[in-house]
Amino acid sequence: MDEACQKAIEERLRELISEERFQHSLGVADTAAKLAERWGASREKARIAGLVHDCGKSPSKNILLKRVLEFGIVMDEIEKEEPQLLHGHVSAELALREFGIDDQDVLASIRYHTTGRVPMSLLEKIIYLADLIEPGRDFPGVDELRDLAGQDLDAAVLRAMDLTLIHVIQRGLLIHPRTVAARNWLMRARKGAER
User: Fold this and answer.
1) d(CA 125, CA 136)
2) What is the CATH topology of the domain spanning 3-194?
3) Where are the domains of the chain?
4) pLDDT digit string (tens) for 66-121?
5) Which residues, 6+ apart, have CB-to-CB distance to 47 below 8 Å?
6) At what angle do helices 122-133 and 19-39 cross, to 10 degrees?
7) Are 50 and 32 in contact (CB under 8 A)?
8) Which of 97, 154, 178, 181 has its CA 20 to 30 A from that of 119?
9) Does the model's pTM come out above 0.90?
């Protein structure tokens, strides 16, 4: 992505999301690009996915649900009860419609950055993790997660999922089965690799 294209996306993005969300997105884009370089993924794809991963996130549940209906996104039972999980799906649709991003791996990494899925591509793992470890994030365990991200990507994604699950449970929210399935898939893959 050339600099002019990135600037155009950033300008449009500022119109779609809050300044705080915009700064978070810049942090995710930079973190994702660094992780991509470390783990052998496309820096360009990682940067663009990180930049627009939250473009459909709205503080208003009504606006989010309006976009879900407008885009014909099918909600599962958990998403109906926890609609904030849908912002990844809405963001992927906006990435396609507003920004002309049609790379399927980029769109999937945006779509599933909240829950993960089976299987997760390298880019999907990078965006999932970058969203949690970008410089603006501050929560117990984030520094450990940042260190782990440079040493063992799958271990870092697993730890990120564990921390997310703990957070979701502590808040009394429903856990999406995609997250459980993604965690189990990664655990099995790691166990198979260790044999």
Assistant:
1) 19
2) Hypothetical protein af1432 (1.10.3210)
3) 3-194
4) 999 999 999 999 999 999 999 999 999 999 999 999 999 999 999 999 999 999 99
5) 1, 6, 29, 30, 32, 33, 36
6) 130
7) yes
8) 97
9) yes
